[in-house]
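step 4 of 6: structure.
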Amino acid sequence: MDVERRILSHNDDLAAALRDRFARHGVFVVNLVSGPGSGKTELLQRTMSDLRPHLRVAAVTGDLATENDAARLAESGAPARQILTGTMCHLEADMVAAAIDDWDLDEVEVLFIENVGNLVCPTGFDLGEDLRVLLVATTEGEDKPLKYPTLTMSSQLAIISKCDLADAVECDVELLERNIEEVRPGTPVLRTSARSGEGVDEWVELIRERFATKTAATAG
Amino acid sequence: MHELTVATQIREGLEREFGSASSADDAAPMLLVDVVRIRVGALSGIVPEALEFAWPHATADSPLLSGASIQIEFVEVSVDCAACGTPTITPDLNRLRCPLCGSPDVRVDGGNELDIVSVDVREPHDPAPVDP
C-alpha cells in the first residue's frame, strides 16, 4: 500500500501552524543552532539587552537538563523560558508551541529560540522560524562547517562567535569563513564577540531590519 | 543521532494513518503491518543502520507494527547546475558544486528525503507472508 509522505510531516504541520501564528502576531523568530559551548546563550544575553530599548524580545531555550540558560537569559529583563528535552537532542515544533502556549504574542516582537547544542539533529526540524542562524565559535576549529554540512546548509546566516579568542586559539577566521562559503555559497557571515562587543551592533541592526521587513510585509 | 525519534515518528505516523490501538491492552488493531519501506536522503542526517537498530525498539509494543521489518532506500545527493544545466549525483556533501563546470550555483534536487514510501498490510486473520 502506497503511503508517500514525509516522516517528519507531523512536525512540519505543527511548524507551519506556528509560522502562521507568529505572522498573525507580527513576531520575528530566530532559531539559533550550534554545537554545545559555542556561546549561544552569551551572545543572546547581550543581543537581548541591546535590543530591548527598541523591540520587545523574548526567548525560549532548549537543554536536556538544568534551567541555567533561561535564568541567564532572564537577566536581560526579557521573558525567557526553559524547555527541558530530557534525552532529546533537538527541539521540535510541539515543544516550542507548548513553551509559548500561555504567552501573549502581541507583547512579543522578536522571539529567539535557542536550540539544544547539537550540530546534527536540529537540521530536519522546522520550528516555524523566519531565520535559522548557525553559530560557530573560533574555539571550535575552522573545519566545523565542513564536518557538519547538513546543518550548515540549512542555515540562512552564520555567526562566528568568540572572535576575541581567535588569536589565542590560533583560529584562522578567514579560513572558517571560506569553509562556510564552501558548504553554502552566499551565506552572509558575521564576526562577533559577546565579550568585546565586536559585531554585536551589526547583528542587532540586522534583526531590527528583518523584523521591520516582516511586519511591513504582513501588515501590507 | 536521533534515529529513535525518527523511528517513533514513523510509528506514530502510521498509527495515525491506520488508526491502530496504541497499546496491547486496547482493542485489537484492524490491520497488521509486515513491511515498512522508507526513503532516506544523504542530507537528512539519518544513518540507515542506526534507524534499523532503533526500529524494533520503537515498535515492540505497537499492535500495528510489532514484528514489522523496515526496508530503507538510501538516496545520494543530486544537484542541477544552473550554469551548464547538467544534473549530477555528488557524494561530496561539503562541495555541492557542479562536477562538470565547477559552478556553485546548483539546486539540490535530491538528498533531503525522509519519507515513508509504502507498507505491506494484512488483516489480522490473514496468514503472515512466508519468507522465500
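step 5 of 6: annotate
 - The longest strand of chain B covers residues 32-41.
 - Chain B has one domain: 3-19+33-122.
step 6 of 6: archive
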